[in-house]
Amino acid sequence: MSQLEEADRPGRLHAEHHMTGGVRVVTLRGEIDHDVRDVLSEALLIEDGAVPPRIVADLSGVTFMDSSGINVFVAAHQQVSRAAGWVRIAGAQESVLRVLQLVGVDTLIPCHPTTEQALVT
C-alpha cells in the first residue's frame, strides 16, 4: 500500500491506495480543495503516470470537497474512459455527496454507499 499526504495542517488530505482484484482502491481522508488538487491527482494515477482502467475512490473520510476535487474526478473519468475503464465513488458523506449531485457528477461517475458495493457493481 502506498500513501500520499499533505500533513501541514489538520484536515489536510491523506490518500492511500491498493489493488483489489484488478481495481485501484483509493482511500481518501480529510478535505479536498485547491491546495491539495495535486495530491488527489497523484492518488488517482499510477506512479509511472499510466492510468489504471478501474478506480474506486473511497470518500468516506472526506469531510469537504470544492470544485477543485470535482475537476480532478472529471479528468480522471475522462482519462480512464479513453482506456475503456471506469471510476466509481464510494462512501461519500452527505455534504460531499450533495456537492457531487449539485454539479451532476453523480450522473457521470457512479456513486455507491460503500466500497464493497462499488467493487461488485
Describe it for me?
This protein has five helices and six strands, in the order E-E-E-H-E-H-E-H-H-E-H. A six-stranded mixed beta sheet has the order 1-2-3-4-5-6, with helices on both faces. By secondary structure, it is of the alpha/beta class. The longest helix is centred in the middle third of the chain and has 16 residues, at about 65-80. It is globular, with a radius of gyration of 13 Å. Helix 1 (about 35-45) runs parallel beside helix 2. It has helices spanning about 35-45, 65-80, 95-100, 105-110, 115-120; strands spanning about 1-5, 15-20, 25-30, 55-65, 85-90, 110. The protein starts with a strand and ends with a helix.
List keywords for this structure.
single chain, 121 residues, alpha/beta, 6-stranded mixed sheet, 5 helices, disordered N terminus
